[in-house]
Design brief:
With about 270 residues, the chain is α/β, with parallel strands linked by helices. Helices cover about 40% and strands about 20% of the residues. It has a 6-stranded mixed beta sheet with strand order 3-6-11-14-16-17, with no helix packed on it. The chain has a 5-stranded parallel beta sheet with strand order 2-5-10-13-15, with helices on one face. A 3-stranded antiparallel beta sheet has the order 1-9-8, with no helix packed on it.
Amino acid sequence: MEIKGTSLDIKYISTSGVYKTSFTLIILIEFFISAIIIILINLWFINSLYFLLTGDKFIQSFPDGYWWYWLLVPLNIYGNIFLFFVINMGISTLVYKILKLLHPPREGVFKKGSKDWKYMHRRFWTAYFPIWLARAIPLPWSDIFIYRLFGTKVGRRVVLYEGYIDPEFVEIGDDTMTSLHVCIFSHLIYHDKLIIKKVKIGKRCIIGAHTLILPGTNIKDEVVLGANSFTKPEQVLESNLIYIGMPANKSITHKSIEQSRIKAEMMKNTKDKK
């Protein structure tokens, strides 16, 4: 599709994506370090269970285990899942902040191989695993916490269902809800170009399921973006309207419950007169 009337002046035939590079191994490094720390923290408990099974200890200086330690196994497993998330979050945040200090993120159009291109990839893969963990663990609102930690501006009483949101250059206002499988991209890759533009979603908005929001989109307050729709780069969605389409171009005025009731009565009266 060709996007006219934008400052980018580029023909977009793709949406978004981040290529795998050698830096993608940061996920394995985060996993390995977090797992080692978990094992070290639980070494006494593992040693106690081993003693209960064999009558021997592989670390003699540790205390003996008791039979009721077996009752703690489910709680231990469940607690370690959350502990793994917290440790991984801390490691990722530290690496992420170092990368931002080395080369701060910025908006614009950048060529392949530039520092902005490379460091965007590195920040993306650093944040990828903890964001995935936040979605996977059974702890409500952990995803909002992790997004805020990586720089996303998320307002109060926001609901973010399963989907993907770029952690950088995205702002979501109060009382907004995103439905299932929503993708909000502040970056877009087209051949040898990387486009980074801020996405702003206003207050009291509803983003329908399977929607795609592209870089530079400005969704104003109290907008409904219908399911299976997508926006154009740098598109502005005006307040108090319902947008649908691929791309979103059809708008319907919001109606209150009272307005809908009056309209229904008028239609009923007209029908009765006939």
